[in-house]
Amino acid sequence: MQKLGFEPLHYVNEKEICQKHSCFMWTFKQPVRATNRKEPYQPTFCPECKREDMEREQLQMVGKAYISSILSNTFEVLARNSLMPSDMKDASFSTFTVSNETDEHAKNFALRVARHYFKDGRGNAVIVGQAGRGKTHLAIAIAKKLNIDFKANNNPKSVLFMNVPAMFQKIQSGFNKKDARTTDEWLDLLKKVDYLILDDFGKGDQSQWKQDFLYNLLDSRDKTIVTTNLIGKDMVQIFDASLVSRVAKGAKEMTFKYPDSAEDRRTLPF
């Protein structure tokens, strides 16, 4: 009687043991050809290692599909996925009050940045100044204007605003949680978004893994807006020189620095 089913393509090789899993290796019964070998050979592999590789590839595919689903509705990314201060949700160019010449220069610079990117300009933009000068307000205004203008022009582009300290807190809170977005998924999203705003760059502790994360992110981008309290000489004392150079990439003509005498725009109730 003819046997039904399939003959296994491999056999248990009891002469070889996987050092990682302490199990017998499997070896192909028939020789196969490979582009990097002149003669056919019989591959040997660990079934547990292979299973782990397949699970890892499956998770990566799920992660990529998740990021693609986020970016599919590009105009919704800003409102849905941004991390911005709750008291700045209504920030825009129309709500930015101009009280002095510095405010006017800062607003005109931000409008120039928005026009530059809307016309497919490249290179990073950097806004430097002490706390309370209006950097975050203008950065959100740029993000909203880009999103509105691209939508009005029926040109699908994704814009994302990220407060850097809040972003790292969100990433760290997901460590060891199965249902949380992984660090690689965060990095993939931030790399793929068309226009990214990194607010409060340099605030808080700057551990090496954070610097490595930011370097990997900025090394792959050429359209990122950065707001920071740090001037160049302070930044190079905190960050690796390679990271600082990525921040400054293409920003020679796209940098605005508030003068030290600039007024604090915040009003205190006491």
TrEMBL record:
GO molecular function: ATP binding
Family matches, as Pfam families: IstB_IS21
Chain ranges passing through the membrane: none
Signal peptide: none
InterPro entries assigned to the protein according to its UniProt record, in alphabetical order: AAA+_ATPase, IstB_ATP-bd, P-loop_NTPase
One of the GO BP terms on file: DNA replication
Residues in AAA+ ATPase domain copies: 121-249
PANTHER family per UniProt: ATP-BINDING PROTEIN RV3427C IN INSERTION SEQUENCE-RELATED, CHROMOSOMAL REPLICATION INITIATOR PROTEIN DNAA
Protein name: Phage DNA replication protein
Organism field: Streptococcus mitis
